[in-house]
Amino acid sequence: MFSTDELSSLRWDPVAGAAEIIDQTLLPHTLRWCHLESLDDYCHAISAMQVRGAPLIGITAAFGLAHAIGKDASNAGIKAASERLLATRPTAVNLRWALQQVGDAVAGLAEGERAAAAHDMAVALRGEDIANCERIGANGFELLRPLHTGDTLNFMTHCNAGWLATIQWGTALSPI
Question: I want to staple 115 with a disulfide (CB 3.0 to 4.6 A). Which of 70, 138, 149, 160 is the partner?
């Protein structure tokens, strides 16, 4: 598991049994962590843009679906929770993908096994995002290193590309 004190945009609090997110609507003036303790909380975090950036939205949805499966692991419950989460940002590709990953992880399992499998998948997706972004940073840095000749090196990014848009590191900004 990961520690509750590491600086990430989404972390798991095993004592509370809840994901915690940075409420990005309050930045840069206030750093506030929000516990997501219900499906409504997860849906609100996504729709109110408390979480921003495609990777973070997807991982938040994965934890939201895992939470919902812990409450109702029936096929109907999973379908209803997935539809609610998808409705928060219907065009978000990562959200749809993450919901599919969790859904696939529990498909064919007995209802009593689904909650743990869904949570494990959400944790795995979180870990994969961290590893992917770290690799982007390492590879990107090696591409940028020869361009830095002592002068200022300027960057322009599009959309949410820093670590707040992912779990850690960021995408386009991770090399710097």
Answer: 70
Q: Which of 55, 53, 54, 51 is nearest to 24 (CA)?
A: 51
Measured distance CA(44)–CA(104) in Å, rounded: 24
pLDDT digits (tens, 9 = 90+) for 2-23: 444 567 999 988 888 899 999 9
Domain boundaries, the chain: 10-165
- What are the Cα distances from residue 32, in Å, to 23, 82, 126, 160? 6, 27, 20, 19
The pLDDT tens digits of the residues spanning 107-145 come to: 999 999 999 999 999 999 999 999 998 998 889 888 988
Crossing angle between the packed helical segments 75-88 and 54-71, to the nearest 10 degrees: 150
The residue assigned the tokens 């997860």 is 42
CATH class given for the domain over 10-165 = mainly alpha
User: Can you spell out the DSSP letters for 28-61?
Assistant: TT---EEEE-SHHHHHHHHHTTSS-SHHHHHHHH
Separation of alpha carbons 43 and 65, rounded Å: 10
